[in-house]
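Why Alpha-N-acetylglucosaminidase? Reviewers of the renewal asked for a concrete example.
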Amino acid sequence: MKKVSLTLLVSLFCIFQLSAQIDLGESKALIKRIIPTRASAFEVGYLPQENGKDVFEISSKNGKIILKGSTGVSIASAFNYYLNEYCHCQITWNGSNLALPKVLPVLKTPVKKNSDFLYRYYLNYCTFNYSMSWWDWKRWEKEIDWMALHGINMPLAITGEENTWYEVYKEMGFSDDDLKGFFSGPAYFSWFWMGNLDGWGGPLPLSWMKSHHELQKKIIQRERALGMKPVLPAFTGHVPEAFKKHFPKAKLKATNWTNGFADTYILDAEDPLFAELGKKFLEKQTKMFGTDHFYSADTFNENEPPSDEPAFLSKLSAKVYEGMQQADPKAVWVMQAWLFYSDRKFWKEPQVKALLEAVPNDKMLLLDLATEIEPVWKRTQAYYGKPWVWNMLHNFGGNVNLFGRIEGVANGPVQALNDPNKGNLQGLGLTMEAIEQNPVLYALTMRHAWDSSPLDLDKWLDGYIRNRYGKVTPENREVWQILKRTAYNGTTIRDGAESILTGRPTFDSTTIWTRTKLNYPPKELLPAWQLMVKSIAANGSKEGFQYDLVDISRQVLANYALPLQKKWVTAYRKNDWESFQKYTQEYLILIDDMDELLGTRQDFLLGKWIKEARACGFTPAEKDLYEQNARDLITLWGDANSPLHEYSNRQWNGLMKDFYKVRWQKFFDALTTAHQKGEKYQHETFEKEIKQWEWSWVTSHKDFMAMPKGNPNQIAQKLFDKYYVKIQQAYE
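Here is what the prediction returned.
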């Protein structure tokens, strides 16, 4: 392996180096947002980088806690480190603990940390829809604070991209009618931006474009004020169908994502218009938002190139970069390496090498998008000299499940840093498709941002428990040991299993996007549930404990659906209708019970998702459109015949009872009716009918509970008393 050149490292450092004139006011404001009544106990200051590395220092002076850092992110990370290590507090999406001691602990000697990772990357295109579709500035502000606290300094920033393109195309003479079928609805931007679909979920109101243009301004301003370098979008070739009308000689290629959507159109990179359009877009974007010279562009997201000839791929890559460079000579292309993972048959060594080597090493950054699942860097000679980022992907589609590769995340980044073949490893990141779940995995990954020494996972988990629950007891320590061995061992399946309850009704134990294979024997999770319920008296007042209690209870019940399904399937096949009625009724009651449990936490509310969607609309028609987008994404994903139905399934209050339960009830009724008539059940007929019912549900409007209801401790205890022995017997 060749050594990384000094010129490359200097070039990268110069591009990314942050000004010494950091905005200390923003750091103070962040602290005040998080602990408004105690913020005056903290002082902030600047500390220069050391050997090109970000650094922070924590000390005490005259009764104050002094936080110094090389950037606003460094200062925020120092603050988070102090909260974790000295105050035993914790900030997560799913239950925070900010019960600070009355007297803040002082440090006898200063603590200094630096980062071995130049880039600490955050977000995936999909996150912007599976989690962020309906976020307002208040929610974005909270997330940017979370980023800074966890050391993130390079977030993907693509909010409002549709408005930039709208203005570019309007200046090129396109009419609103030309563009009406181009822009997707708000829940589908990720796949629109990546060139997978046009128009679905639209037509997009102009009011959305304008409001989210303004939202992007706020996002970018705050991220930069804290010392982050946002990654902005660039042109990858995706153009409107009307492009043919305006430029009849343009070289266009129709492509199809093969997921139930119409063709989209890609402008050939060799067409002179390609670089010209790429330049127009970046110039317009820079005028609107400024630039930090990092641009995201993914040329073939789950779409195969028209040729596997290395010369073709090399020329294409060079043209994409040329479009960036013409607008910004300092441009660095940030590429998701997902294509090399998702289409390994196409992207062999000659193809990968050709695509990458057409761009100078210091002008491209590769995101190894799912390193904890499959480290692509190991089969590409560490991306042939390009700087690259180690990422945890973890969640696909926003599905709700306890899952993760906790050992891999604990050790992976450190092992990569110490690997002699690591090439130009420059970053650490999080590239999940959705957030606001399994908070332990995200805290653990970003622990490496400021400490790349080998990790004692059990010791780290003790700290996590203490910060989350207020104390470490033998019971909750054993809970996390069980979770580490079961749900979080993550070694035999790619992503977390779903419950059969969320699948379109079937006699099978799995469906296409409801994969029920667990990475552990489900009975082994039961003791964790028992210990959590036993710990209610000791820990039940803590938000983090309540979330974990509900989540573990939910997982146990979700797993139990499978053996219960087998009982009614067996009864049906034996023509035992008394048992069939008994077990199908229990199955439906299980859904009701899960719905009640999930309703105790805002993390699991369909009503919250829909309310936030409707709040984005300015007119009744817009509100209805956004509600339909919100309902569709998490159920059918597309139209009534969508092959992606259930890809983004959610175990949420409201969805369990109003969608999944009704489907199962209709299925059971169809089976019963056929039996009573002495006819053979026709599953194809049922499928046609249920698809139409599902589409009717997607296009309907209804208010669901948007605030939690009930005491999570009491309801978890009630369900434990009702189900524990029954589930234990089912597995025995």
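The longest strand covers residues 55-61. This is the kind of structural detail the renewal will allow us to pursue systematically.
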